[in-house]
Amino acid sequence: MADLNTNVRYIKGIGEAKAKSLGKLGIATLGDLINWFPRRYEDRREIKPISQLIPGEPACVSAMIASEPKLSHIRKGMDLVKVRAVDDTGALDVTFFNQSWLKNQLRVGETYTFYGRAEGSLLRKSMASPIVEPEGRREHTGRIVPIYPLTAGISQLLLSRAIRQGLDSCADILPDCLPDGVRQAHQLCRVNYAYENIHFPEAPEALDIARRRLAFEELFFFAIGLKLLRSRRETVSVEPFQPVDMAPFYNALPFTLTDAQRRCVEEAIADMQSGKPMNRLCQGDVGSGKTMVAAACVYFCIKNGRQAALMAPTELLAEQHYRGLAPLLERLNIRCALLTGSTTVKTKRSVTAQLATGEIDFAIGTHALISGSVAYADLGLVVTDEQHRFGVAQRTALAEKGEHPHTLVMSATPIPRTLALILYGDLDVSVIDQLPPGRKPIETYAVTSAYHPRLYAFIRKQVEAGRQVYIVCPMVSENDELPDERKAVTEYAQKLQTEIFPDLKVAFVHGKMKAREKDAVMSAFAAGETDILVSTTVIEVGVDVPNANLMVVENAERFGLSQLHQLRGRVGRGQHQSYCVLVSDNKNDETRQRLKAMTKTADGFKIAEEDLRLRGPGDFFGLRQHGLPGLRVADLGCDTRLLAEAQSAADGLLAEDPALTHHPATAERVRKLFQQSENSLN
Ligand code: ADP
Ligand code: MG
């Protein structure tokens, strides 16, 4: 008897080698196998008469073998089987390469279904190496055929046959983790029907029904998991923070906070006074001033006599925060320290010691802040910046350095509301929906590379006016290999320096450089010592150089809208008129549409929604990086209504059965789903 935990080798045709290949896809058991869903489907239901085959187009025909199959050896290692097949409307020459066994399998007078690309002329039609199946056994012809993501050594045919067997052996024991009441209330099909039809749909309608059920299920369990996370947190009590006079902090700032910044600060402060640990996301477009919101919270925490930590995803950002915040806070008697991978051993030792005794109030740094040797005397607030680079696990690891410290997560990725609900279902959200005053909109242009001479003249003009320029460099791949960013950046920088701007200072930075080298280049740029910075997308996140006012993106078609928006957000941070020039020779309609969208809108949320519509959530939003389980069926771009339904169903179920004691199957499924982020469930 097989069950979902049975090894895939149970399946006929899966030996050791194939099992190993399947292992690369993460398929080890029958359960994994039947949960390997098609990437897409091909509708091969229509059987065409031979006379209507169109050369160049794939199609199915049903035809009788009219001649004895002929086998010939063309050369060593190359056999050919030729056969003629006919239907009422015409004849078809069929050839198969290296499938010599077909010579004895195809029988004259029997009818077969063929699927392949028609070739030849209107009068003499042919097909080369079509899929062939006996009439009445339609796996890959005459039906809607699933197309699976594959790996080396595994073919579509093999995989779909294995899945067929897997489904047949598990059909009666598939557990339905969706409570019956929920299933009925939302008019969802049963689990057997769903699995059968997600793999082998009889009709498009059946596929829709199956997909809807499986998508709902994913969203439902996801929502439950997040709600459980949240409710566990809500049972924790902490000493409420006391009110603090914030005037000294506000007076020390070189500007007044915007209303939106102010509101976010107040929301966070209210959380910290509530007696429950804060778990808040502060979301704001690039340049909206998230850093000062964090600083205000840090001030509030430290004036409550507790320590605070700010974790950034790169050394560059950590150092930038340190340079920006330490002078401000130290004037307010707050002792700050920087802790990154390149902090010297000696400094690290002293900082660690002072964090442990509480002599340092505020630590700014990278992952170094969560390394094993670092301990805090009394950590009260944890801020993580540019959160989409961190996983839940890292967020949690820093929080675990304290007794339920408050956490504030800052994200520059404007995430559409639908997605925020999913990704941050366990967080409260504040939005900074306003930019600091006096910002001029960034003028954005989409041009072709023919524009380069004029573009170079424009760059020169900006530099002569005292400004600085970013150029995100072209990435050229040779022979389809992944582009070499180091080579691309250094070569382009060299070309600009020697041929175009011999009199200007050109520098470059890329991800393969050592953190210290990178930092030296960035600091020089921030200090105005270099004019033009050629880089890869390492400058995508968070870097703040207000004097830079021109962003040039070469091969702009390579970037998604949200990424372009992040890049563009590196300029327009000071009082100068800023520009963004997107260079692309790509003529693809969708690309042109995307670049055009960039010239039309500056609103990060609109752009993110457009991006979601054009590209789907994919991994750009880093579902996996979040340490949250990825969604395989649900499409957050399209399934908004379903998401709302699943959320309310999750609310309903938890209201009735908060600990899921009466729904063990559901509880088990949720537990599995969140296994990777187990830490955060405890
Ligand atoms: P982001 O939200 O992208 O992290 P930053 O915190 O880096 O934005 O702020 C962007 C720039 O705007 C910084 O140079 C910062 O000093 C400035 N800034 C922040 N808040 C204000 C404000 N209320 N008024 C004027 N400038 C501000
Ligand atoms: Mg920032």
UniProtKB/TrEMBL annotation:
GO molecular function: 3'-5' DNA helicase activity; ATP binding; DNA binding; hydrolase activity
SUPFAM superfamilies cross-referenced by the UniProt entry: Nucleic acid-binding proteins, P-loop containing nucleoside triphosphate hydrolases
Ranges for domain Helicase ATP-binding: 271-432
Keywords from the UniProt entry: ATP-binding, DNA damage, DNA recombination, DNA repair, DNA-binding, Helicase, Hydrolase, Isomerase, Nucleotide-binding
Family according to the record: Belongs to the helicase family. RecG subfamily.
Residue intervals of the Helicase C-terminal domain: 451-613
Enzyme Commission number, as recorded: 5.6.2.4
InterPro entries: ATP-dep_DNA_helicase_RecG, DEAD/DEAH_box_helicase_dom, Helicase_ATP-bd, Helicase_C-like, NA-bd_OB-fold, P-loop_NTPase, RecG/Mfd, RecG_dom3_C
Gene Ontology terms describing biological process: DNA recombination; DNA repair
Physiological role: Plays a critical role in recombination and DNA repair. Helps process Holliday junction intermediates to mature products by catalyzing branch migration. Has replication fork regression activity, unwinds stalled or blocked replication forks to make a HJ that can be resolved. Has a DNA unwinding activity characteristic of a DNA helicase with 3'-5' polarity.
Record's keyword annotation contains Acetylation: no
Keyword match Transmembrane helix: no
Domain of life: Bacteria
Catalytically driven reaction(s): Couples ATP hydrolysis with the unwinding of duplex DNA by translocating in the 3'-5' direction; ATP + H2O = ADP + phosphate + H(+)
Official protein name in the record: ATP-dependent DNA helicase RecG
Coiled coil: none
Gene that encodes the chain: recG
Pfam families reported in the protein's UniProt record: DEAD, Helicase_C, RecG_dom3_C, RecG_wedge
